[in-house]
C-alpha cells in the first residue's frame, strides 16, 4: 500500500489553548510532535485521513479516517497522563458494551484507533430530562464488576485530589472556601470508611462524553477509569449543564431533585451520591480557582453549598 497522504495538521484551537495553559512546556512539546506522530500512524495502520474532529478534546486530537478496507474509524492521539494511561484497558474490557469499541492501540504513546461515532452529536443535544435518562442507561452497561482489574481505586485517586485540595485551601484567595474544603475532606473520609461493592467506573462521565452511534444509540468516550463506588461516577453527572441549572428558578431545589432522580434511577444510595457530589464539586471548584477561572470556580462552590 502506498504511504498515507500528507495531511496539514491543524490542532483544534481548544487543544492548543488548554494544553499550553495546563501543561506548559510539556504541552508545547507534545503539540510540536503531533504532525510527525499523525503521519507515522496513518502509514503504520494503513489509514486514509478525512478531517480533524472539531472542536476536539482538551488533551487529545481525533482524526476521522478510513481503514484499508474502507471502514470508517477515528484515530485518537492523546497526551498520556495518570488519568488517561488506562483508557485503552477500560475500553478493551468493555469491548463495546456501553463505550466506543477499541480497534487498535499503542497505549504507551497515547494513540488509539476507535470505531467511528457521530462526534458532532452528544447527549448535550437532547433536552435535560431525556439526556439524563439516556445517560443512566449507558452507566448501567459500564458499571461491571471490577474484581481482578488493575485500575486505580477511587480511594487512591481521591487521596491525590485531597492532597491538592489541602494545598489550595492554604492559598490566600481560598480563605472564604475553607469551610467547604474541610467538609469535603471529612465527607471523603467517611465515604471511604464504608464503601459499597466496587465496580469499574468511567471516571469522567458527563453528557459531552456520550456520543450518538450506529451500533447502539449512545456510547461513552474518553474514560479515565477507576474502580470503586458508583456514586463517585454519578456525582459528575449530577452537576452537568450547571450554567443552565443555576439559571433555573429555585436552582437549589432543582439540583436536589436531579440528585434524587439519578440516585433512584441507578439504585445508588442518595446520601452517598450527595456526599460524592459535594466532594467533587468542591475539588473541581478549587481547581478552577487555582487556574484563574474565578467564575467557574465560584459557581461550582455555590453548587456544593446547594447540596
Automatic annotation (TrEMBL):
Q: Which InterPro entries match?
A: Kinase-like_dom_sf (IPR011009), NH2Glyco/OHUrea_AB-resist_kin (IPR006748)
Q: Pfam families in the record, alphabetically?
A: APH_6_hur
Q: Which domain of life is it from?
A: Bacteria
Q: What is this protein called?
A: Aminoglycoside phosphotransferase family protein
Natural source organism: Streptomyces silvisoli
Upper lineage is:
Bacteria, Bacillati, Actinomycetota, Actinomycetes, Kitasatosporales
Amino acid at each position: 500500500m502506498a504511504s498515507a497522504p500528507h495531511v496539514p495538521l491543524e490542532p483544534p484551537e481548544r487543544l492548543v489553548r488548554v494544553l499550553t495553559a495546563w501543561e506548559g512546556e510539556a504541552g508545547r512539546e507534545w503539540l510540536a510532535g503531533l504532525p510527525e506522530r499523525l503521519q507515522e500512524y496513518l502509514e503504520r495502520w494503513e489509514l486514509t485521513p478525512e478531517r480533524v474532529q472539531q472542536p476536539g478534546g482538551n488533551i487529545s486530537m481525533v482524526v476521522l479516517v478510513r481503514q484499508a478496507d474502507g471502514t470508517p474509524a477515528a484515530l485518537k492521539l492523546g497526551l498520556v497522563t495518570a488519568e488517561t494511561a488506562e483508557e485503552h484497558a477500560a475500553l478493551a474490557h468493555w469491548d463495546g458494551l456501553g463505550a466506543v469499541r477499541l480497534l487498535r492501540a499503542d497505549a504507551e504513546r497515547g494513540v488509539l484507533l476507535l470505531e467511528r461515532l457521530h462526534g458532532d452529536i452528544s447527549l448535550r443535544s437532547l433536552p435535560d430530562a431525556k439526556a439524563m435518562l439516556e445517560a443512566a442507561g449507558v452507566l448501567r452497561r459500564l458499571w461491571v464488576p471490577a474484581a481482578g482489574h488493575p485500575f486505580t481505586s477511587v480511594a487512591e485517586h481521591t487521596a491525590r485530589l485531597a492532597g491538592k485540595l489541602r494545598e489550595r485551601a492554604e492559598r490566600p484567595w481560598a480563605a472564604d472556601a475553607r469551610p467547604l474544603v474541610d467538609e469535603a475532606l471529612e465527607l471523603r473520609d467517611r465515604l471511604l470508611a464504608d464503601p459499597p461493592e466496587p465496580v469499574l467506573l468511567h471516571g469522567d462521565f458527563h453528557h459531552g462524553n456520550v456520543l450518538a452511534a450506529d451500533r447502539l444509540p449512545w456510547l461513552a468516550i474518553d474514560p479515565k477509569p477507576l474502580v470503586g463506588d458508583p456514586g463517585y461516577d454519578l456525582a459528575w453527572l449530577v452537576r452537568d449543564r450547571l450554567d443552565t441549572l443555576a439559571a433555573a428558578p429555585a436552582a437549589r431545589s432543582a439540583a436536589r431533585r436531579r440528585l434524587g432522580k439519578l440516585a433512584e434511577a441507578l439504585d445508588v444510595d442518595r446520601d452517598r451520591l450527595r456526599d460524592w457530589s459535594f466532594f467533587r464539586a468542591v475539588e473541581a471548584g478549587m481547581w478552577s480557582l487555582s487556574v484563574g477561572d474565578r467564575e467557574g470556580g465560584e459557581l461550582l462552590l455555590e453548587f456544593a453549598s446547594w447540596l
